[in-house]
Design a protein that fits this description.
The protein is mainly α. Helices cover 78% and strands 3% of the residues. A two-stranded antiparallel sheet has the order 1-2. A hairpin with a 2-residue loop joins β1 and β2. It is found in: Membrane. Belongs to the TerC family. This is Integral membrane protein TerC.
Length: 279
């Protein structure tokens, strides 16, 4: 998918989310509408870092773009199902044990700090424990067999690297859900708002992946913005312990500012590096 076409689809999905948000405002009121918008922005921001990991995974396994689309489609369907399970489970736990929000807050702060300090390592992706475990369950072929997940050779069933990538992506989505679901609890614990904002954030991921896949060198600093958003949502949950509630309007303003700043800095610094190389 070309960058131009992918951008059009990204704008379409964002427009659809905003139309849904307008519907919430009309039928449910201002507060739920702000909660949906806050949840959507948080989930969208965190999904960007997830996509950077997808790029790294595909690159590590040498998966061509024409085969990436199928993996992304299955990955998105899996993410929708997993998020529903996480949302229902998370809301149930929060309703039973309200103090768990403070634990979520601490987890988000630690995750954000780790994201800032963590260095990228392409080799660690291919040598993942998940891939090693998969190899013990079913033999994996050395090369990609078109867009097939499984092939049969000499009457023996083999998984292909494409299936290994799918498993790795689904597993990483579980890890990211551990961060993203608690993060949205800093805005609301309404199951409807939490899940719908997650759905709309996930639906445009495939198109956004192709945008980032073509332009990811220009957005290297966005992950630091995402990390700061994680830390902020963690702080927002943690201060509830002291009966301090940060207004959702202020939260939205801070999240928008941090994300926009990271994008602007990424574009500026990537432009300067390009100029230096040309000189």
């Amino acid at each position: 998918m070309s960058t131009k076409k992918a951008l059009k689809w990204v704008m379409f999905w964002i427009g659809l989310a905003l139309a849904f948000n307008a519907g919430i405002y009309l039928f449910m009121g201002k507060e739920p509408a702000l909660q949906f918008l806050g949840g959507f922005v948080i989930e969208k921001s965190l999904s960007i870092d997830n996509l950077f990991l997808f790029i790294m995974v595909f690159s590590s396994f040498g998966i061509k773009q024409e085969h990436q689309r199928r993996v992304l489609n299955y990955g998105i369907v899996g993410a929708l199902i997993l998020r529903l399970i996480f949302v229902l489970l998370g809301v149930t736990i929060v309703n039973m044990f309200h103090w768990i929000l403070y634990v979520f807050g601490a987890i988000l702060i630690i995750s954000g700090i780790r994201m800032i300090l963590k260095k990228e390592d392409n080799n660690s992706v291919k040598d993942s424990k998940i891939i090693k475990i998969l190899g013990k369950i079913i033999p994996v072929t050395d090369k990609v067999e078109g867009d097939k997940f499984f092939v049969r050779k000499n009457k023996i069933l083999y998984a292909t690297p494409l299936f290994a990538v799918l498993i790795l992506i689904e597993f990483t989505d579980i890890i990211f859900a551990v961060d993203s679901i608690p993060a949205i609890f800093s805005v609301t614990t309404d199951p409807f708002i939490v899940y719908t904002s997650n759905i709309f954030a996930i639906l445009g991921l495939r198109s956004m992946y192709f945008v980032l896949g073509n332009l990811h060198e220009k957005f290297k600093y966005v992950k630091y913005g995402v990390a700061m958003i994680l830390v902020f949502t963690g702080v927002k949950l943690s201060v509830l312990m002291f009966d301090i509630k940060i207004p959702i309007e202020l939260s939205l303003g801070i999240i928008f500012f941090v994300l926009a700043s990271s994008i602007v800095l990424s574009v500026l610094f990537s432009g300067r590096k390009k100029e230096i190389k040309e000189i």
